[in-house]
Amino acid sequence: MVTRDTLWQPGQLVAGGTYMPAACLPSGWCGYVDARGVHTVAEQMQQSLSSAPLLGGVSQAEAWFNHCVDPDEPLDMLAPDVLLDRAAAMRGLPARVLGMMTAASMASLRVASAPLAGDRTSVMVTCDTDNAARVGEPATAGAEPGTVNMVVLLPVGLNEAARVDCVVTLTEAKTIAFVDSDVAGARRRRQASGTETDAVGVFCPQVGPRLVAAGKHTEIGETVGRLAVTALKSAIAGNRRASAHG
Q1: What torsion do the CA atoms of 31, 33, 38, 42 make, to the nearest 10 degrees?
Q2: Which of 39, 69, 219, 243 has its C-alpha lying 20 to 30 A from 204's C-alpha?
Q3: How far apart are CA 58 and CA 134, in angstroms?
Q4: Does 12-244 carry CATH code 3.60.70?
Q5: How far apart are CA 23 and CA 8, in angstroms?
């Protein structure tokens, strides 16, 4: 299949932030990023499925917000939804916003997109691997700051099972990106499969037909998986370059 994938990154963030190019988002979406976070807003309500602290699970949302927290500031982990709700309101976001948080720099943001169903689909990633870990390792109560937050914005409707397919694909893609990038666990120095605090989300239109499958055997699954690997590998490589330069 001939693809026309694009990869966008904000580069060095300056005061005031920057808007994402419309060409890297599905129709009806807009996006903005600054040093304190990234958000995307849809013109119409979306179906969502996510592990996000704010509006997670199976839900409906008008926006996605990835809030950058200072790892040196005290954080009440018992009420992350309250923190996110307040931060989203300060940015003027809609009431129904799916919210995640991270200590990763917003310079790590990558937006990979490709044509799909006469429109575009986009995978967005922020990344910090300081608390990288291998699945199945002993859990730690006080993980180091750092996480991989990943969402996909789809132009086609999916039923709940197909949205789970997308979550599986994003998770597999994350592990492939970690393996290809040779990311070792922060504590045991074995091949990592992710970090200890990753989050994932899927957005798709609320109106119109809903597809019943989105696994690797479908065009949606192929596209989402490819974009997720590309975006995350680029983010990991960017973090390493930034660390090497101090």
Answers
A1: -10
A2: 69
A3: 27
A4: yes
A5: 10
